[in-house]
Structures are given as structure tokens and as C-alpha cells.
């Protein structure tokens, strides 16, 4: 397709693909880092959102090159943040697609990027999805251990939307689970969503994992989650995904 060849061209151009940064906060509302979300600056269409090109990249195999680029951009950003005392504590989460995770070169790629950028590996957080981990679980667990040994953190994205079971969750070397925003949206009006969110928090605690809620838009939603013991939050209430320069302004205003 035309979009596919455009994306191929974008991969050749350093300015075409950028990460936008959405704040993540702790229980006191203090900024602890960001999720890096990919944006494509298309010469004609303007900013293209990942929902429009990630599926295409998955289908065409371009996701591997895209994933490599995202890891490099994230490590570069962490290296830049590490040089300024105002930002040196910030962690950065990035999304890993199934195909990228399953690729035999993935661990080596992360290791190489960490070595090149000389960043503190603990500040890099990889977001994995349930569906990604449930297929070929033994292999996935082995890879996760290798990543854990490199020192990076692993977060389970979109938690609750897949086939989560206690049996598998306790086998996975995770440091965090992320409550999917579909449960957060109606948390104040839908008793089922409230129960699910509470249960995920208890589950996370009992397994020694930190719990982050995404899609927090209103103070009442965060108050509820906070009162139930949720450790961290992300959502429009704290900030939208923004370009690196804008994120820096946001950090400075809050520090
Ligand atoms: O802002 P938002 O529209 O950014 O993201 C939409 C979806 O795209 C999310 O599900 C997110 O996980 C995914 N996404 C965003 N950035 C990346 C990326 O760098 N790699 C992968 N694989 N998915 C991403
Ligand atoms: O699937 P993943 O969690 O990686 O995707 C993050 C997505 O959630 C991005 O598309 C991001 O723009 C979106 N997002 C982040 N915060 C909010 C929010 O408060 N409300 C809504 N509706 N979407 C959000
Ligand atoms: Mn995510
Ligand atoms: Na999610």
C-alpha cells in the first residue's frame, strides 16, 4: 500500500518518527516518568497516530525496524534526561509488540541499546501485553528473565482485558501491572468496573507488584483508585502525551 511505502521511507528519516511522552505519577501526584508513545510525522497527513500504522507495521514486518527505532529513541531520551538533575530520576516506559518480543534478536537489541546509551537500565520499562505472554509461555518467561537480568523493568499492559489468571501471573517476572483504561473510565458509575479495578489492585499487592492505572481523566477516579491502594497513575488528568520539549516544560513546572 501507499501508506506502507511511506512508512518504509519514514524509517529512513530520523525526524519522521518521534515519541510523545505522557506523564506517570506516584501516589502523591509526583512525576516519576512517562510512557513513550510513537507518532509518525507524515509529510502530507501530518501526525499519524499508532492505531493507524502499528497494525500495518505488524502485518508487513516493518514493526521490527520500528521497534528497534523506538528502543533507540527511548534510550537516547533517557540518556538526555540523565544529564539534567531535574529529569535524571524519570523512568520511561515503551510498548513492545508481540512480533518484536518473539524475534530472536530482541534481547540482544535491548542489551546493545542499553550499552550504547549507558543509561541506568532500571529506568527503562517495557510494556508487554497478556496475549503476547500467553502464547509460547515458557519461551516468554525465559525472555522475561533475560530482560530482568539486564535490569530493565517489565510492566503488563492492558491488564484485565485478556485471559489473566493467577496461575500464569505468578510465573511471570513482572514488576508492574497496568489497569486497562476500559475499567477506569466508568469506575465511579459502574460497580463491576469498580470491583475489577479493586481486585486488580489487591492481586498486584499480593504478588508484590506495583499497580498503575491508565486513562485517569477525573480527580474522582484517581481518588477512588488511590484509596484502594493503587501505586501510580497515568491519564489526561496528569497530562496528555506530548513532544519531548513540551514534556520538559511540564517537568520544570512541576519541580
Ligand atoms: O496514544 P496512543 O494513541 O498513543 O497509542 C495507541 C496504541 O498504540 C496503544 O495501544 C499503544 O500501546 C500503541 N503504541 C504506541 N506507541 C507504540 C510503540 O512504540 N510500539 C508499539 N508496538 N505500540 C505502540
Ligand atoms: O494501549 P496503551 O496503554 O499502550 O495505550 C495508551 C493509549 O491510551 C494511548 O493511545 C494514549 O493516548 C491513551 N490515553 C492515555 N491517557 C488517556 C486518558 O486519560 N483517556 C483516554 N481516553 N485515553 C488515554
Ligand atoms: Mn502502553
Ligand atoms: Na493499555
TrEMBL record:
Domain (EAL): residue spans on this chain: 1-255
Domain of life: Bacteria
Stated name of the protein: Uncharacterized protein
Organism: Telmatospirillum siberiense
Amino acid at each position: 500500500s501507499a501508506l506502507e511505502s511511506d512508512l518504509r521511507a519514514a524509517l529512513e528519516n530520523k525526524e519522521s518518527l518521534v515519541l510523545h511522552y505522557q506523564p506517570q505519577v506516584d501516589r502523591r501526584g509526583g512525576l516519576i516518568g512517562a510512557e513513550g508513545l510513537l507518532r509518525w510525522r507524515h509529510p502530507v497527513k501530518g501526525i499519524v497516530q499508532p492505531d493507524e500504522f502499528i497494525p500495518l507495521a505488524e502485518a508487513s514486518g516493518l514493526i521490527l525496524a520500528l521497534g528497534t527505532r523506538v528502543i533507540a529513541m527511548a534510550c537516547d531520551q533517557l540518556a538526555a534526561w540523565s544529564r539534567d538533575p531535574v529529569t535524571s530520576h524519570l523512568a520511561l516506559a515503551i510498548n513492545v509488540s508481540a512480533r518484536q518480543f518473539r524475534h530472536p534478536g530482541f534481547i540482544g537489541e535491548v542489551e546493545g541499546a542499553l550499552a550504547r546509551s549507558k543509561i541506568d537500565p532500571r529506568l527503562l520499562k517495557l510494556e508487554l501485553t497478556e496475549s503476547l505472554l500467553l502464547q509460547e509461555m515458557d519461551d516468554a518467561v525465559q525472555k522475561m528473565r533475560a530482560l530482568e537480568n539486564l535490569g530493565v523493568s517489565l510492566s503488563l499492559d492492558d491488564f484485565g482485558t485478556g485471559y489473566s489468571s493467577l496461575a500464569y501471573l505468578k510465573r511471570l517476572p513482572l514488576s508492574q501491572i497496568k489497569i486497562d483504561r476500559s475499567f477506569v473510565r466508568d469506575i465511579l458509575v459502574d460497580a463491576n468496573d469498580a470491583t475489577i479495578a479493586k481486585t486488580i489492585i489487591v492481586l498486584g499487592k499480593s504478588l508484590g507488584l506495583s499497580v498503575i492505572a491508565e486513562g485517569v481523566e477525573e480527580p474522582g477516579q484517581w481518588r477512588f483508585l488511590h484509596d484502594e491502594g493503587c501505586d501510580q497513575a497515568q491519564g489526561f488528568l496528569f497530562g496528555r502525551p506530548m513532544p519531548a520539549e513540551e514534556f520538559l516544560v511540564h517537568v520544570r513546572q512541576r519541580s
